[in-house]
């Protein structure tokens, strides 16, 4: 929960580095912990294990540009932009895409997720990308609404993950 004191703290946005990986891991685990209540125990264990997998973040940092938000040397927000040429079963090779947006629950409501997402959009445009995409789920209502306000449009429903509905969203430039 955001308090009045938090709104007066200086939020610093910067590019992430390899040295941030331990802090990013802690932050994403904290930010995604709220989903424990909407997932089965087995699916939460799978998600939690993925978020605790250091090699996942090392791989992301090798292919993506990460952005973080910090206050008083504490990491409170993170996002990754993966450039085109890194296809997955979800994302075609000609699209850039966003992964692992997370904000410390104590700092939500300050526009941190939006500012981090806008940084990815700006970088994608600067780099000559023609589209930026992401996937999101039925239990990520706040994020879905924010993405839609930023101009992302639902492309299609994906195969379920963690026994939940997921959609592919895209913003074309």
TrEMBL record:
Keywords, ordered alphabetically: Acyltransferase, Transferase
Organism: Spirosoma validum
Listed SUPFAM superfamilies: Acyl-CoA N-acyltransferases (Nat)
Protein's name according to its UniProt entry: GNAT family N-acetyltransferase
Highest taxon of the lineage: Bacteria
Pfam families: Acetyltransf_1 (PF00583)
Domain N-acetyltransferase: 11-173
GO molecular function: acyltransferase activity, transferring groups other than amino-acyl groups
PROSITE patterns: GNAT (PS51186)
């Amino acid at each position: 929960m955001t308090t009045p004191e938090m709104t007066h703290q200086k939020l610093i946005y910067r590019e992430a580095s390899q040295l941030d990986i331990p802090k990013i891991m802690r932050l994403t685990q904290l930010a995604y912990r709220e989903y424990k209540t909407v997932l089965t125990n087995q699916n939460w264990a799978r998600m939690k294990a993925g978020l605790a997998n250091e090699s996942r973040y090392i791989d992301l940092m090798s292919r993506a540009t990460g952005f973080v938000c910090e206050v008083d040397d504490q990491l409170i927000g993170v996002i990754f932009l993966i450039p085109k040429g890194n296809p997955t079963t979800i994302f075609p090779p000609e699209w850039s895409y966003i992964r692992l947006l997370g904000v410390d629950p104590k700092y939500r409501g300050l526009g941190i997720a939006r500012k981090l997402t806008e940084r990815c959009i700006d970088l994608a445009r600067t780099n000559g990308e023609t589209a930026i995409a992401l996937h999101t789920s039925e239990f990520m209502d706040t994020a879905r609404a924010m993405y839609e306000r930023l101009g992302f449009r639902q492309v299609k429903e994906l195969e379920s993950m963690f026994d939940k509905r997921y959609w592919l969203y895209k913003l074309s430039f």
